[in-house]
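Appendix B. Raw example, untouched.
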Amino acid sequence: MRRSCMQHNRELYCYLVTKISWKGSYKRLLTVGTMGVTTYNKDTLRVTNQWPYSEIYSVRPDPNIKSSQPQLQRLILTVVDNNRKRHELTFASEYRVEVLTDLLRFRDRFGDRLKQFPVSDHYLLIL
């Protein structure tokens, strides 16, 4: 599903990943672009998902390693939907370090960069 807010996205980095969900595991191409992240079906090259950086809350490594696939290291991409609900998406790749590095190049565009301390009226800017 291609999103109109991503129509001018220029893809800069591309990785073969495995999308892991409760439904199963799917091979995907994950691209990091100028405006956001896109996943494609690796066989048809059809867009399966797109997230502009404003909808990405965080990205982090998952320290758990599956014993059956030790070469595939996981990362967790947290996105926020229109209702401000967070969803964690898990991907596995032998290129986890590179994927994380390329995603974090755009961390200044991630949504929710201002966090309010619950005990204070001051804001902390996450860089």
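End of appendix B.
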